[in-house]
């Protein structure tokens, strides 16, 4: 493949904690630390790389130990970093809490990844066959929305834009979200995000509303797989039964694998089936960047 996945999402560092339950307000609870791990856009990029797709990070990153950790993680899997580090800010941190059933909760403090340089980004060349990953976290008014909205709108017409809106952008509805939705070729959203974004009451209706004549939509249903909406038609693509250990990064693994499938020329439903398998394998492993290889994924799919 000559295509690559270029992400302008937020590369952040997760402080991963296992807790028996979330503490009550004002309370305390003892848990277990699983250390610091690059996450956010890093998860998507590494998931795509392991599926055989070239990848590059075109978001912001910091000067300091957290930025160093992000860059080392990307370099280890041959993901190119396209922009220079922020001269004075370090990368931000996210506390990722996992409960015994695998459910996770997050608290985020943004850093350099929320301070992208518009002039530097404008100098990045996006090819016609590139896929561009945009995260809703980067579209917030408090992060990079003012830069990313116009930049995405001006991308080459043939480049494929994949938007993962995320919960904060859906709740806040920043101005940039609307402009990126208008340009997006694919939207991939968790079910609760899709319902909130569209105002629909059923998964199928939400998937159909997210899609348009020129845009496809994926609504992720967890263990139940996903819905694929194209040109008004909605197809349910089955998931895989696994023993969930940690749901952190499952949506990122799904999106990275789906992007790689599209780049290989897979039909959307087939790419979604492969993405379901990648997400299923990811949740059987502890940690944020647990996307499987293409060989592992195809073994679960059955070829």
Task: Please explain how this structure is put together.
- Helix 1 packs across helix 9, helix 4 runs parallel beside helix 6 and helix 7 crosses helix 8.
- The mean pLDDT is 94.
- The protein has one domain (4-8, 39-63, 78-90, 116-301): Ribokinase (UDP-N-acetylmuramoyl-L-alanine:D-glutamate ligase), CATH 3.40.1190.
- The chain contains eleven helices and 13 strands.
- Strand 8 (131-135), helix 4 and strand 9 form a beta-alpha-beta unit.
- The longest helix is centred in the last third of the chain and has 15 residues, at 268-282.
- The strands form two sheets. It has a nine-stranded mixed beta sheet with strand order 5-4-1-8-9-10-11-12-13, with helices on both faces. A four-stranded mixed beta sheet has the order 3-2-6-7.
- It has helices at residues 41-50, 65-76, 118-122, 145-153, 166-172, 175-183, 191-198, 203-210, 250-263, 268-282, 294-301; strands at residues 4-7, 11-18, 32-40, 54-57, 80-81, 93-98, 104-109, 131-135, 160-164, 186-190, 216-220, 226-230, 233-237.
- It is α/β, with parallel strands linked by helices and 303 residues long.
- It starts with a strand and ends with a helix.
